[in-house]
Amino acid sequence: MATLDEKIAELNKRYAAALGGRVAELEGYLKGYESSGSFSDLEKLYKNAHAVAGSARTFGLPEVTVKAKEFELAARDGVDTEILHKKLSALKDCISS
Length: 97
Fold this sequence. Notes:
This protein is mainly alpha-helical. It contains four helices and no strands.
């Protein structure tokens, strides 16, 4: 039977592996917002960025938390999509490093 530390390590590994998919979802929401300009798409972007920031904090990834929070706040404030792309790129770079 796995120890608690082993179980936590496995959860962290699974979370890290799933982050790429979460970022891909954010990219999709950003593209949707760019094409429609709708508040609904912006809200999806903001809420999902918020979820990434919160879960990254839970899993002990402070750098990812900071970058996701910066992206979340930019989306919440409805900043220019160019800035949103830069924030998302910074998040992707943080995850891949």
